[in-house]
Design brief:
With 160 residues, the chain is of the alpha+beta class. The chain has helices spanning 4-8, 17-22, 37-44, 92-102, 134-159; strands at 11-15, 23-33, 48-49, 54-58, 61-65, 68-69, 86-89, 107-116, 122-131. The N and C termini lie far apart (40 Å).
Length: 160
């Protein structure tokens, strides 16, 4: 487990907050991502969007789809296509293990966040996830509201 000090040195580029609402997160993995130079510069500027993106294993390689990285403003003719398919860098054993798990019913590989590690490398946090049903989402919302009400009552009680 990472300590608090090392967690602060990670620079988060983009976060997929909707994924935690739409899916049950079973396991998380860290993967590198193969990028061109202008893509890295756009990520340093914070111009990325994880909405509707997903990962899939094809021909023994992990691929990331629908990650939108905006073109770099000073990139001229060397710019990249914003939604191109990108290769994820993981150990072969991990890739094959995830391929076996994704073949199970209802499991998907969803990227949770894109960030720079302390050494300046771009990483993607992937989640092995299972889709939530509507009643699960309503249950989560009700639990969050109840917790907020309890916290509010405690704060008001402490003021007295």
């Amino acid at each position: 487990m990472a300590t608090k000090a090392s967690e602060k040195s990670f620079k988060t580029v983009t976060d997929n907050r909707r994924a935690r609402h739409e899916y049950h997160i079973l396991e998380t993995y860290e993967a590198g991502i193969s990028l061109s130079g202008t893509e890295v510069k756009s990520l340093r500027a914070g111009k990325a969007n994880l909405q509707d993106s997903f990962a899939r294993v094809e021909n023994g390689e992990m691929m990331l789809y629908n990650l939108h990285i905006s073109p770099y403003e000073q990139g001229n003719r060397f710019n990249h296509e914003p939604k191109r398919t990108r290769r994820l860098l993981m150990h072969k054993q991990e890739t094959l293990r995830l391929y076996g798990k994704v073949r199970e019913k209802g499991l998907a590989l969803i990227p949770l966040k894109v960030y720079f590690n302390p050494r300046g490398k771009v990483k993607v946090e992937l989640a092995l996830a299972q889709g939530k049903k509507t009643y699960d989402k309503r249950h989560d919302i009700a639990a969050r509201d109840a917790k907020r009400d309890m916290d509010r009552a405690i704060r008001e009680r402490q003021k007295m």
